[in-house]
């Protein structure tokens, strides 16, 4: 089955072909017809398998048709996402797929000025891709009118429902016309969240699940190395020096860790950049763009960048720290092996993290292959260094960070 044979506008077909998309992926093949029929859909499919286009294609087609046949105005679709980078990215996918059509999209997110967004909204926009905070601001200011919205999408739906946004989402749904379609997409979901999702939709909602036993794209190979906390940065330096051309995302647990790892790399003359929620938005956008363009090869990130981000040619995802939540392992390593590309996920596991590794393997339903490295492999770097960072220090730092997070949440 090729996109050529689909009953969608020829302009969209041309855009698909320009993007090099010939055939639908499994999730696109299953989700597009149901969405076109107007069903509510809960779709779960592995990382990097084209979920964005699975909802964007039918939505753009519908709006394009309605605008071609009658004078139509007002926002018709809202896509809610958890991070700013993801809002920008999905906004560009909508733009690319709606070239030459009448469909206009805006990405709306916090950390940047509101006025340009408000101006653009006033120009007549069909699709809004938004993070919840900024979207509610704009709704309350009257800059976003929900009267004509007939499609609501939650991408990374499990996180959107889990972040405590459920009340906000219900509030938005109450403001929409009664007859509207709700679409949930993610690579992971658990039982409770699934229940919560179903409480938000029609009882006839369609459930599509592609390969639920394996949430990571089959293009990703998984490995673990057992490295003690104190040795991780030496091992990382060694790994990067051994793979000088590789494009790598290194995931760490906290923003403080991110900065520390960057410094440790700098001491080894390795250039890297950090990406985390404490940076201002201009820096975040700048770092992301430079990494996307290939102007730098090593990105050190916290879980803010774990979900949804689609960057071509990431060769390795390194879990410098194992994630606390097993599903975040899936999202992190899903930054590699996207589309038809292959990728490698390498996790550093210290003695203290063995329980987490166990939990992740249970979540994945499969063991992660251990790579044997001896301390000799990177001992030379250790011997010549007098850097010291004790596990105790790390734990203290972690606790301080957790406290700050709690305080912020209360505010
Ligand atoms: P997901 O949301 O499932 O993680 P994305 O929607 O970000 O995945 O898509 C992952 C990659 O696959 C993107 O780079 C996208 O351009 C590519 N892609 C999507 N659909 C197709 C298709 N039908 N054929 C080829 N590549 C595709
Ligand atoms: Mg996605």
Q: Can you give a write-up of this model?
A:
By secondary structure, the protein is of the alpha/beta class. The chain is built from 16 helices and 14 strands. The chain has helices at 10-18, 26-36, 51-69, 84-97, 115-122, 132-140, 157-162, 166-175, 191-198, 232-242, 255-267, 281-293, 326-333, 354-364, 376-383, 391-410, and strands at 41-44, 77-80, 105-108, 127-130, 151-155, 181-186, 206-209, 220-226, 248-251, 273-275, 298-301, 316-319, 343-349, 369-371. A 7-stranded parallel β-sheet has the order 3-4-2-5-6-1-7, with helices on both faces. Helix 2 (26-36) runs parallel beside helix 3, helix 3 (51-69) packs across helix 4 (84-97) and helix 13 packs across helix 14 (354-364). It starts with 9 loop residues before the first helix and ends with a helix. The model is unreliable at 380-394 (pLDDT under 50). Adenosine-5'-diphosphate (ADP) is lined by residues 21, 23-25, 28, 45, 47-53, 310, 338-339. Adenosine-5'-diphosphate is lined by residues 21, 23-25, 28, 45, 47-53, 310, 338-339.
Features:
411 residues, single chain, globular, Rossmann fold, 16 helices, 15% strand, 2 domains, 43% helix, binds adenosine-5'-diphosphate, binds magnesium ion, alpha/beta
List of distinct ligands in this structure:
adenosine-5'-diphosphate, magnesium ion
Class of the largest domain, according to the CATH hierarchy?
Alpha Beta
Q: Report strand %.
A: 15-25%
Q: Total domains, how many?
A: 2
Mean pLDDT: 90
Question: Largest sheet at a glance?
Answer: 7 strands, parallel
* Strand and helix order: HHEHEHEHEHEHHEHEEHEHEHEEHEHEHH
Low-confidence stretches: 380-394
Any idea what the shape is?
globular
Just name the CATH architecture of the largest domain: 3-Layer(aba) Sandwich
Note the total helix count.
16
Helix content: 40-55%
CA gyration radius, whole angstroms: 22 Å
Tell me the CATH superfamily of the largest domain.
P-loop containing nucleotide triphosphate hydrolases
Termini separation: 52 Å
């Amino acid at each position: 089955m090729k996109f050529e044979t689909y009953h969608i506008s020829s302009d969209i077909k041309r855009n698909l072909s320009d993007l090099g998309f010939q055939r639908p992926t499994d999730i696109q093949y299953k989700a597009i017809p149901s969405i076109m029929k107007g069903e509510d859909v809960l779709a779960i499919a592995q990382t990097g398998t084209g979920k964005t286009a699975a909802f964007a294609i039918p939505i753009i087609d519908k709006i394009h048709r309605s605008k071609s046949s009658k004078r139509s105005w007002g926002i018709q679709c809202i896509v809610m996402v958890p991070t700013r980078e993801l809002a920008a990215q999905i906004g560009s996918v909508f733009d690319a797929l709606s070239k030459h059509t009448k469909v206009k999209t805006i990405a709306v997110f916090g950390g940047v000025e509101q006025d340009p967004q408000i101006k653009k909204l006033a120009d007549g926009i069909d699709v809004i891709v938004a993070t919840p905070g900024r979207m509610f601001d704009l709704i309350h200011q009257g800059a976003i009118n929900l009267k004509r919205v007939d499609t609501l999408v939650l991408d990374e739906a499990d996180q959107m429902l889990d972040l405590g946004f459920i009340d906000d989402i219900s509030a938005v749904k109450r403001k929409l016309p009664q007859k509207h379609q709700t679409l949930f997409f993610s690579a992971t979901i658990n039982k409770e969240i699934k229940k919560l999702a179903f409480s938000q939709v029609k009882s006839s909602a369609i459930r599509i699940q592609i390969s639920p036993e394996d949430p990571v794209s089959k293009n990703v190979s998984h490995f673990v190395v057992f490295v003690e906390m104190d040795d991780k940065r030496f091992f990382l330096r060694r790994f990067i020096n051994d793979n000088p051309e590789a494009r790598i995302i290194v995931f760490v647990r906290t923003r403080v860790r991110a900065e520390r790892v960057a410094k440790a790399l700098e001491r080894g003359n390795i250039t890297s950049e950090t990406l985390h929620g404490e940076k201002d938005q201009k820096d975040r956008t700048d770092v992301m763009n430079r990494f996307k363009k290939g102007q730098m090869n090593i990105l050190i990130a916290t879980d803010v960048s774990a979900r949804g981000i689609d960057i071509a040619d990431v060769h390795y995802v390194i879990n410098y720290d194992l994630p606390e939540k097993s599903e975040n392992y899936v999202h992190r390593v899903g930054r590699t092996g996207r589309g038809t590309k292959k990728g490698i996920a390498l996790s550093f596991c210290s003695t203290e993290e063995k329980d987490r590794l166990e939990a992740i393997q249970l979540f994945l339903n499969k063991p992660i292959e251990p790579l044997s490295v001896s301390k000799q492999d990177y001992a030379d770097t250790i011997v010549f260094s007098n850097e010291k960072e004790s596990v105790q220090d790390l734990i203290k730092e972690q606790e301080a960070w957790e406290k700050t997070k709690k305080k912020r949440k209360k505010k």
